[in-house]
Amino acid sequence: MAVRSVDSVNQGVRDLHSVARWRAHARRHPLRYRLAVVAPSAVDVIRHAGGWLFDRTTAGWEVTVLVTDHSDVRPLRILGATVLDLEQSLATSVHDTWPNAVAVASETYMSDSRVREGVLDCFDRGLMEVAMWGDVIPPELEHRAGTAHHRVSVAARAFKACALNAAGHPAESVESTEAFRVGEIPPPIYRSDADLVPAT
Predict the structure, then answer these.
(1) In the structure, what pLDDT confidence band is assigned to residue 93 with cuts at 50, 70 and 90?
(2) What are phi and psi of 39, to 5 degrees?
(3) Which of 15-29, 48-62, 129-143 has the lowest mean pLDDT?
């Protein structure tokens, strides 16, 4: 199956960016901190990590979300994220721009061997901060990932509520914290206030 272009200008896929254009942008801005998020859908990202994404964006990070289902990605734009097609991103052979942190839905980790291999490589080599959310933590990560949480700012809670509303879930409550399983967390001196902190 040929991978179709997801250039939002040419194909009318609103708010979904071209992988080639994103890579060109990243090469022009090499010093930006980057967070890459991999998940099945926009709603899954918003529910589990929407506050963290917004807070990282307002702290100056460039947040990119790669989703399988990109039928409605506008709610992620509300949080300040750039949205790419996961399949097209994984199919690209050139990976010259790497994020500083990665967040992955456990559902995607377990269902896509390419994502699983990439996450395990990050854990093995300590290349970047790795966070995961979901009801089931894969057995091979059980002893390699500790529990952490993010305290969602008041502004992030408001924007997360707007994103949920735009995604068709206006009644969902927005909690003050979001929980993750993470690899090694950098010492406090290297973190901003918006980063993940170990759960106590």
Answers:
(1) low
(2) -155, 165
(3) 15-29
As a whole number of angstroms, the distance between CA 170 and CA 143 comes to 36
Candidates 77, 67, 103; CA nearest to 196 is: 103
Burial class of residue 117 (count of CB atoms within 10 Å of its CB; 0-12, 13-18, 19+): exposed
> How many angstroms separate the CA atoms of 62 and 82, rounded?
8
What tokens appear for 80 in the block? 């300040």
The answer to whether the pTM exceeds 0.70 is yes
Residue 20: HSE in the Cβ half-sphere, 13 Å Cα cutoff:
5
CA atoms in the 13 A half-sphere facing the CB of 11: 12
Q: How far apart are CA 110 and CA 15, in angstroms?
A: 27
> Cβ contacts of residue 23 below 8 Å, gap of 6+?
92, 94, 96, 97
Give me the domains of the chain, ranges plus CATH numbers. 13-192 (3.40.50.10320)
Please state, in angstroms and rounded to a whole number, the distance separating the CA atoms of residues 54 and 76: 9
Cβ 105 vs Cβ 40: under 8 Å: yes
| CB contact at 8 A, 132 and 108 | no
| Tens digit of each residue's pLDDT (9 = 90 or more) over 118-162 | 899 888 877 788 999 998 888 888 888 889 999 999 999 999 999
**Tokens representing residue 25 in the block:** 């942008």
| CA–CA gap between residue 141 and residue 143 (Å, rounded) | 6
Whether the Cβ atoms of residue 144 and residue 123 lie closer than 8 Å to each other: yes
